[in-house]
Amino acid sequence: MYRAASVAASILAVFALGACQQMPAQQGGQPAPMAPATASPAPASQQAPRAAAPQQAVQQPSVEFRLAQAERAPDLNELRMANATLWVAPQPVLVRSDLSAVMAVKAKDGKSYVRFNFTQPGAQKLASLTQRFSGKNFVLTIGGNLVATPRIGRPITNGVLFVPMASEQQALNVAAVIGGAGAPAAR
User: Which CATH class is domain 2-43+62-180?
Assistant: First the structure.
């Protein structure tokens, strides 16, 4: 019961974050992989989950990355934000099952990020996408709610994507919702 309440509270935090429609602070490109000054792993239950009746099962929110661009194009959906409009592909290119770990991290310069570690197949997709679509954006949604729109700056071949967040609290909330809802916690 406590776990269900905790997950519900975390999901509500992401819904609140969705209204922010956070644009990345760095328009010039993807942040370089960094050694975090402090790392706050996503909270994970210390207890083994209890078997629940099917109607009481906790639903994990979807985690989806879609490709987006600033230019209008056929078959793309318009996403209007406070300070920009993006044209978004209807199908996700990376999803929850492509993730192996998620954690909130803080860089030495004080900026907050969510670090997404990808499975081997997910890392291969990420490398291909970031090589082919440099200069475009990812649109990150959790449970269908907009969380971030990081710009693709260079190929990412190590399977680790850092997504900038507006604050440390937002990074912690996003990591908690994804990691606390069943994705593997960072190691």
Answer: alpha beta
